[in-house]
Amino acid sequence: MIRNAREGTEATSDRHENAIRTRNLNLWYGDFQALLDVDLQIKKGVVTAVIGPSGCGKSTLLRSVNRINERLGYVRITGGIEVLGHDVYEDGVSLPRLRKEVGMVFQRPNPLPISIRDNVLFSLDLHGTRDQGPGKGVKEEIVERCLRRVLLWDSVKDRLQAKATKLSLAEQQKLCIARLLPVKPSILLMDEPCSALDPKGTAAVEELIWELRGVYTILIVTHNMAQARRVSEECVFMLMGRIVEHSLTEDMFAAPKEKQTADYIEGRYG
Amino acid sequence: MFQATKRDVRNKNVEFLWRLLFLTMTVLLVLPVLIILATLIVKGGPAISLGFLFLEPTNGMTEGGIFPALVGTLWLVAVALLISVPLGVAAALYLSEYAPDNWLTRVINLAIINLAGVPSIVHALFGVGAFVLFFGFGTSILAASLTLAVMTLPVVIVTTRESLLAVPRAFREACWSMGATRWQTIRRVVLPNAVSGILTGVILEVSRTAGETAPIMLTGAVFFLPFLPQGIFDQTMALSLHLFVISTQVPNVPEHLPYGVALVLIAMVLMLNAASIGFRVYLRGRKKW
Ligand SMILES: Nc1ncnc2c1ncn2[C@@H]1O[C@H](COP(=O)(O)OP(=O)(O)O)[C@@H](O)[C@H]1O
Ligand SMILES: [Mg+2]
């Protein structure tokens, strides 16, 4: 996918199970270590929630999967991350291709200040070559399909040319998910996608995440445990840069294996 | 219960005094501008005619029009813009979008800001040394416009940089996370959202370029030339220099003439500014760029 050549023995078996795998991942912001020995296997097609108190490194973990953290000059990483069986920190990995495969949704909806339609087509414009881009009619089909997929079509179909920033926050967030879909990613990273939304908007986006389950591998950060329970199938609990527990969501909430997890779930930390 | 106490009354009075002070300051600032404009219109207005605009000066510059100077100033401004806008915008893009945030970048930024404070006569001497003599452009429109461009580059760079910085980081992050390269991000998101700020910088530059006298006097503009410049290697007349010459160097100039020149110069700057504002509005109105 990201790099076609590699046909490793181990990678082949991984590819069918794990969408993301980190090995001994350590990350420093300058002198501050934000991730410690993170070993994680995120299954394909499953919604995995990452929970933990604020500042424990959830965003950092997400942002190292699509390598968006590197913009900051002072980030250092050891260990590895594989996406679909391919090491993404290897030389020669193309960031545009990685980010095409691994889409990201941010805490604050950040549609571009262009029309709804152009937002959806933006990633296609980035990744399509000039002469072999889809024709006009195909584009309109793509817009409709992606907006339907995120349950937004009916409310915006009459105003596709309106500025995306005029939509409600929940609609903007759905649009931010929709705009990832035209380039057919397999993994969606969502960093607290509902924390800027009101309860109704939250419910709408959660419904959407549930809807996308199975088709996309979704890694969603949330500090809202009720949300983790509602939307995820597996759950990862982090504390101070470490993975404390990774299990099925129902198990984690019914019978946490670690004391720290139990303490957190019962609300004994922030 | 809701009666004003002594303290409330005092607060109200203080409030009034401050307001009055700020208003006075504003009026004091605006008033001179209005007076200057009024004087120019009253005293220079009678000089304006088609002949004044489209004929050359005659009789030792005490009669006739200002056409060669008008055309010359347009040349100078246009060539200076063609040089400084691409250069300045490119430099600003590099500094704010590509350069790492380290001490060297900060020193460069500081240097650029300080460059904006260099007196124009110093730029003039630099222009003579560099463009007239070293590059051998002679005294020409090219040398004069290059000097003007160097002089106004800091303004272009600083205003461009500021308008780039004003583009929300969230837009860039959205772009990067979709796999856009830096250039794609700049071209599709950063520039379209910064362009009106950049044009503001250009407007400032136009006004300054058109009005400067010292830098062009030594590098390409001449007192009197009986023909129009044919290209960038020619010398030229210019409105600002012409104004200087007929108000200080030439005897027996009728009083309305310098005022007329000044009026034309100001009108031209205003018109160029209006054009860039119009362009800005047009760009903002367009859906994409
Ligand atoms: N850009 C950054 N520079 C320096 N430190 C950072 C940066 N981003 C995050 N951190 C630090 O790394 C730790 C983890 O942050 P983050 O991943 O944002 O936590 P979370 O998303 O779980 O709240 C925090 O202590 C935070 O202060
Ligand atoms: Mg976070």
Plain-language structure description:
- The complex is a heterodimer of chains A (270) and B (289).
- By secondary structure, chain A is α/β, with parallel strands linked by helices.
- Chain A is 36% helix and 25% strand.
- Chain A has a single domain (5-265), classed as P-loop containing nucleotide triphosphate hydrolases (Rossmann fold, 3-Layer(aba) Sandwich), CATH 3.40.50.
- Chain A has helices at 9-17, 58-65, 95-101, 116-127, 136-149, 153-156, 169-178, 199-212, 225-231, 249-254, 259-265; strands at residues 18-29, 32-43, 47-51, 75-83, 86-87, 102-105, 187-191, 217-221, 234-239, 242-248.
- In chain A, the strands form 2 sheets. A 6-stranded mixed sheet of chain A has the order 6-7-8-3-9-10, with helices on both faces. Chain A has a 4-stranded antiparallel sheet with strand order 2-1-4-5.
- In chain A, helix 7 (169-178) runs parallel beside helix 8.
- Chain B has a domain at 70-238: MetI-like fold (Orthogonal Bundle), CATH 1.10.3720.
- In chain B, 73% of the residues lie in helices and 1% in strands.
- Chain B has helices at residues 6-44, 50-54, 67-98, 103-115, 120-134, 141-165, 169-177, 182-211, 214-217, 239-248, 256-285; strands spanning 57-58, 63-64.
- Chain B has a two-stranded antiparallel sheet.
- In chain B, strand 1 and strand 2 (63-64) form a beta hairpin.
- In chain B, helix 3 (67-98) packs antiparallel against helix 8 (182-211).
- The longest helix of chain B has 39 residues, at 6-44.
- The N and C termini of chain B lie far apart (58 Å).
- At the A-B interface, helix 3 and helix 4 of A face helix 7 and helix 8 of B.
- The structure holds adenosine-5'-diphosphate (ADP) and magnesium ion (MG).
- Magnesium ion binds at residues 58-59, 191 of chain A.
